[in-house]
Amino acid sequence: MKKEVGIVDIGYGNIGSVYNAVEFLGFKPSLEKKSENLKRYSHLILPGVGSFAKNSEIIQHNGWFEPLKDFINSGSYIFGICIGMQMMFEGGTEGGNNKGLGIFSGSCEKFKTDLIIPHIGFNTVEHKKTRIWNDIPNNSSFYFVHSYRIENTNEDIDYCHTVYGEKFISFIEKGNVFGSQFHPEKSHNLGLKLLQNFLNFK
Fold this sequence. Notes:
The chain has helices spanning 16-24, 52-61, 65-73, 83-86, 188-199, and strands spanning 5-8, 30-32, 43-46, 77-81, 91-92, 98-99, 107-110, 119-125, 140-146, 148-150, 158-163, 167-174, 177-180. Strand 1 (5-8), helix 1 and strand 2 (30-32) form a beta-alpha-beta unit. It has 202 residues and is α/β, with parallel strands linked by helices. The protein contains five helices and 13 strands. The strands form three sheets. A seven-stranded mixed β-sheet has the order 2-1-3-4-13-12-11. It has a four-stranded mixed β-sheet with strand order 6-5-7-10, covered by helices on one side. The protein has a two-stranded antiparallel sheet with strand order 8-9. The chain has one domain: Class I glutamine amidotransferase (GATase) domain (Rossmann fold, 3-Layer(aba) Sandwich).
């Protein structure tokens, strides 16, 4: 099957680094602004920067919720990055109660640690050695920048932990759905390897 890679472009935030990373890996991504076009892609990346509230507002206002759920239910591959991962959960508390896609149970809430917030810089990820982690050593470091996190979920699925004053979910996966709280596109060779593993799925 020919790989068709889409990057969701909701007109908010800098997605250039994600585009450049995918292109560097030898793929030709498309910046997708229309939710009705999602069916054309085999792989979709949902990036996000800024606030959960703003991303939720834009995604709802522009009619992305159901098309994204339909894409996931079709079995095609999706990878959420940072707030893109947070949006896969039920909701978030930043600026009020905001709606997420509800793919996973759990809420995105502010860190409770006494450490400096936002959490910025490289930190280790304890992974479960699933196939997306092929050739990536456990407890490798990836780049984070966030003030809100998913503390836990009730889902019986594979997810990874990172510690920054407290333990939080830094990566999650279930079937064709993947999400990282960290930015693989800004995490040097190991981040690129993670994206490559995802894009090579058939």
